[in-house]
Design brief:
By secondary structure, the chain is α+β, with helices and mostly antiparallel strands. 41% of the residues lie in helices and 23% in strands. The chain has ten helices and 22 strands. The longest helix is centred in the middle third of the chain and has 117 residues. The relative contact order is 0.04.
Length: 581
């Protein structure tokens, strides 16, 4: 019982100590009430009604005025003194006594310490034993005492020290990072500074070169004027010479007519022919320019005579039936073979652009960007023939149906025909204005078709060595061209994302196929010719029904571009050659 009575008293004492400040404040309030008297409420009515039912406080007017009729000097002085006193009271600052810090009890300090250290089991044992002692009355709260301020201060300082160490660590990391960023920025600054100096040096050099070129050009202006004057003089001489030539030609025609009349009249004496001035001109020494013009005229005359003698080929009307129709009826897929690398042929100094296998013999032809094509025997890989003649890279080649001739397309805007037995060029077709991408033979062997970067395709006559038709219609580079097997139909694929079907006999476009979203790089027929395969620059391959001229299926094998597409002989497999960058 004594312990139970001691506990509430000690608890009350602790509460009084914890709430000592609040009790003193309430006590002061009671003393003030006793001194000044009891408070009461008084009802006040406002003279003017408010619009929004808001109660405004009445602000006292500091500008006092003495009422009329009571103009007493003593009263006025008293009112002034009272107002000054009120002002001083309002200006004084009320200093509240600081709250008395209650020291922490020892048991609370120990509990907080154990909680902070995470010693939960020790905390449970301590609390159970501590409260058991309190219930038995062996220990009282007032006998235990409080924790000295030094320990609590040490704990606070340790916590603050840990926090400061953490902040210091973070600041060091931030400083190291800032130092690294500063070094990187300095390096970048030095690099840009050097680049700027180099650019300024190059700019100054270019300015000096430009000034030198201007001076050099200025020094040539008098020479250019003299050459212009000489040019005009030569033009005048040319006109006079042409007039003299026409006059001499007229005289020759007149003399020839006279000779004819004399031969008809059987006269024995012929009149004198005076062409002494012309003979003198012919016997006079020729300059290099006149000599070159005379040789060019003679060469052109020879070419025109040869072309006049050669007749144009005619497109065949009765075409040979396609032999692949009977071979592919069974539609038997070939067996799978385990292919192994047999030999590596190093033929060109620059990348290889095209490889074509001979239709009847075990040889192949490879074309490269080193302007050379080579005939290689299989399987040993020995070089049988080397073709030189193009002035730029080779893009494509194609065998004649008989296998005796070869057509090559080049970046020098020409198509050349080669005799494989003699190893020499037999024809050169000139007419394209940009690089030629592809070429193909007609099944009769009398025509060659070519496609070019200049957005056109051309059909060349091998016998007359001239362009029979120029195919206009594409709006971008024509990348591939191929004849329909044993037919007069041409297929072209262009970078304008379309396929076009042409009649080679008229040079007109019969049908255009739309569906690709990117540049078409290659297009080909199946051996039977009923399906078209095309590939574009995004790796999309499409199959088209040639009879219906409609798409069948679309296969996306991108993102690498498709460079070439081919069918095997059984039409069961389709091979696509991608371009890797």
């Amino acid at each position: 019982m004594a312990a139970q009575q001691g506990m509430p008293t000690s608890a009350l004492r602790g509460l009084e100590e914890a709430l000592g400040m609040g009790m003193t404040v309430s006590g002061d309030t009671n003393e003030a009430v006793a001194a000044e008297g009891a408070y009461y409420l008084e009802q006040v009515t406002l003279t003017e009604a408010s619009e929004d039912d808001y109660e405004y406080e009445e602000i006292p007017d500091d500008n006092f005025s003495i009422p009329e009729g009571e103009e007493d000097l003593a009263k006025a002085i008293q009112m002034v003194q009272e107002q000054a006193t009120d002002t001083q009271i309002l200006e004084q600052k009320t200093v509240l006594s600081s709250k008395h810090a209650v020291p922490e009890a020892i048991e609370d300090f120990l509990c907080n310490f154990l909680i902070k250290m995470g010693m939960t089991r020790t905390l449970d044992c301590f609390q159970s034993e501590w409260y058991e002692l309190l219930q038995k009355g062996v220990t009282e709260l007032r006998d235990v005492g409080n924790v000295p301020d030094v320990y609590s201060q040490n704990m606070l300082l340790e916590n603050e020290n840990k926090n400061l160490k953490k902040e210091l660590k973070h600041y060091k990391q931030a400083a190291d990072k800032a130092r690294e960023d500063l070094l990187k920025t300095q390096k970048v600054r030095d690099f840009h500074r050097m680049h700027h100096k180099r650019t300024v040096q190059e700019k100054n050099k270019l300015i000096n070169d430009l000034k030198g070129l201007k001076l050099h050009y200025a020094s040539y202006e008098p020479t250019i004027r003299v050459l212009h004057e000489k040019h005009h003089t030569l033009l005048k001489q040319k006109m006079l010479t042409s007039l003299e030539r026409d006059r001499a030609v007229g005289q020759i025609y007149g003399l020839q007519e006279t000779l004819k009349h004399m031969e008809i009249g059987h006269s024995s004496h012929a009149p004198e022919i005076r062409v002494a001035p012309n003979c003198e001109k012919e016997n006079a020494p020729e300059g290099p320019t006149q000599k070159g013009l005379r040789e060019a005229r003679e060469q052109n005359k020879r070419k025109t005579k040869m072309k006049v003698n050669k007749k144009d080929s005619e497109f065949p009307t009765d075409m040979q039936p396609n032999p692949n129709l009977s071979l592919c009826k069974e539609n038997i897929c070939p067996a799978k073979f385990d292919y192994k690398l047999n030999n590596i042929l190093r033929l060109h100094k620059l990348p290889v652009s095209c490889i074509v296998v001979h239709p009847h013999k075990d040889i192949l032809v490879s074309c490269g960007e080193d302007r050379v094509w080579k005939v290689v025997g299989l399987p040993r890989g020995n070089v049988l023939l080397t073709g030189l003649g193009h002035t730029d890279w080779l893009s494509d080649c194609c065998f004649h149906p008989s296998g005796n001739k070869l057509a090559t397309a080049s970046g020098d805007t020409t198509v050349k025909l080669w005799d494989l037995f003699k190893g020499s060029c037999i024809s050169t077709f000139e007419g394209h204005t940009h690089a030629v991408w592809s070429c193909t033979w007609h099944s009769c062997g009398d025509f060659v078709a070519s496609s070019s970067l200049d957005t056109t395709s051309k059909i060349w006559d091998v016998n007359s060595e001239r362009c029979r038709y120029t195919l206009y219609g594409h709006t971008d580079s024509v990348n591939s061209i191929e004849f329909f097997p044993y037919s007069n139909i041409l297929l072209t694929g262009s970078a304008d994302k379309t396929l076009s079907v042409w009649d080679a006999r008229t040079g007109k476009c019969e049908q255009s196929l739309y569906g690709h979203m990117h540049s078409i790089n290659d297009a080909t027929f199946t051996p039977r010719g009923h399906v078209i395969a095309s590939c574009d620059a995004c790796g999309v391959t499409k199959l088209w029904d040639f009879r219906k001229l409609s798409p069948i299926v679309s296969i996306d094998v991108g993102p690498s571009p498709g460079n070439e597409v081919n069918f095997n002989s059984s039409e069961c497999h389709l091979s696509l050659t991608p371009t890797r960058y």
